[in-house]
Fold:
Amino acid sequence: MAALPQFALDPTDPDTVRKTLVRAGTLFVWSCANQCNAVTYAQTNANVFLYELTLGSTHPTNANDPLCTTGGAVCHQDDIPLVFGTFTSATTDQINLSAEIQKRWTSFAANGNPNVAGKPQWNKISSKTQLNALRLGSTDAVNQTLYADLCGPVFGNTVLYNFQIITS
Structure:
């Protein structure tokens, strides 16, 4: 496999190896794996909607992790305070995002459609090249090919997931 420019090490950054491993691990364990499963499930004609948070609310278990608190990353469980509105302190953007998430989840639970008035239209996944992935947070934007350079060509193809190797 050829070197991937997305994972090139920066010789001027003493923290480059850790940052690169965090990016690769996040993509492999979370982003690309979820995308692969969502596309597979969508092929059964199910209504599958994919989103990614670009803004979180630090979950108490992440409070001592600098990557989650000052690194600009949305970490595992950082969506929980937003979904349930249980943050102890929040910015205006977090409060607004929490309200949007709650409205979208409520709408989806009620009628299978997560769209709400005044927010970008969010369509279900059509295919791996038409993900209609909603990036929720600093800007609500729909992305058709979220991490297309890695999800599929690398993760899930060259580097397989456990669920692709182990069958019951």
Remarks:
- Residues 19-165 form one domain.
